[in-house]
Design goal:
Distance between the termini: 47 Å
Order of helices and strands: EHEHHEEHEEEEHEHEEEEEHH
Strand order of the largest sheet: 8-9-10-11-12-13-14
Number of strands: 14
Length: 303
């Protein structure tokens, strides 16, 4: 179904659009329909504040980032009824108020077809044709009340003290489909060194993983992690993983990681660190790491 690209600055305008979309798409007015809403913000920070606002969470929408990290698609998981429904009117009022509160605007709507898949960057999760297609969903701590929030709060405070900024909270959908475990990973970025930090508390376990990642100009990824090394971690020369003790403080892990980067550059004088400036870059890096793991696993299978 086609998208309706308009500007919606009032709940009434959004309700009119829902009515027109239902009519033009030939949908039944008596049936509930899920809708996608494209929200556009001035910057990535504003988009993050919008998503992490408890009032936004009350809309019970699934959210996904677009290639432009200041744009967000919201999917109304609670199906919207006709434009005259009090629930739909309340939904539109809250959505418009929240978007305007964070200096954003609603720029498009789209009804969701039955059985339609909705993934970030238009990619399907899983492995196809020997390539990894990884999808990430922007999420919030409110969707993971069973996890220890203290771990993420302390991780954020400690890395912020080291010059990092919180860039996003993401759920890896491919992993969710493969293991049925919903993962909540907090991503932070150090813009001066282009170092990505991420923290994950594995569901139903006490395992806490802290990782630092850097992408080199020759395509090599350097990773320093508190996760125990697997059988493939040292067999891929384009993904160099260094396991460290979980007991180390973030400052110590960062020092070890930056030293690893300097050692690599000293061994290869013409290689530099690739810039990572935005959420798009972070997601691209995660896609690349997943591809490296796939390549390694395929090599092991041939042995």
């Amino acid at each position: 179904m086609s998208e309706q690209h308009l500007g919606f600055t009032t709940p009434e305008a959004l309700l009119r659009n829902i009515r027109q979309t239902v009519q033009s798409a030939g949908l039944n007015h008596n049936n509930a329909t899920m809708f996608l809403f494209l929200c556009e913000f001035h910057c990535q920070d504003q988009a993050g504040y919008f998503l992490n606002d408890p009032v936004t969470a009350e809309l019970e929408c699934e959210s996904e980032v677009t290639p432009q990290s200041s744009q967000i698609w919201l999917c109304s998981m609670a199906r919207l009824l006709t434009q005259d429904s009090p629930e739909t009117q309340a939904f539109c009022e809250t959505l418009v108020e929240q978007v305007l509160l964070y200096r954003g605007r609603l720029v498009a709507t789209k009804p969701v077809s039955s059985g339609e898949e909705f993934h970030i960057l238009g990619q399907e999760p899983g492995v196809k044709g020997g390539e990894v297609c990884q999808s990430f969903r922007i999420t919030t701590p409110a969707r993971f009340p069973h996890l220890d929030a203290t771990f993420y709060q302390e991780l954020t405070l400690e890395f912020r003290a080291l010059g990092f900024s919180h860039i996003a909270d993401l759920e890896e959908e491919r992993l969710t489909e493969q293991t049925d475990l919903h993962t909540f990973t907090r991503y932070l970025l150090h813009p001066q060194t282009s170092t990505v930090a991420k923290g994950t508390l594995l569901p139903e376990t006490a395992i806490r993983i802290t990782e630092l990642e850097s992408l080199m100009s020759d395509g090599t990824v350097l990773c320093t992690t508190t996760e125990s090394a697997g059988e493939d971690e040292h067999s891929n020369t384009s993904l160099l993983v260094t396991p460290v003790a979980e007991s180390l403080f973030p400052e110590e892990i960062l020092q070890l990681h930056l030293q690893k980067v300097e050692d690599y550059r000293a061994a290869k004088p013409f290689v530099s660190v690739r810039e990572i400036r935005a959420l798009d870059d972070v997601i691209d890096l995660q896609q690349l790491i997943a591809q490296r793991h796939l390549e390694t696993n395929q090599q092991i299978e041939w042995l």
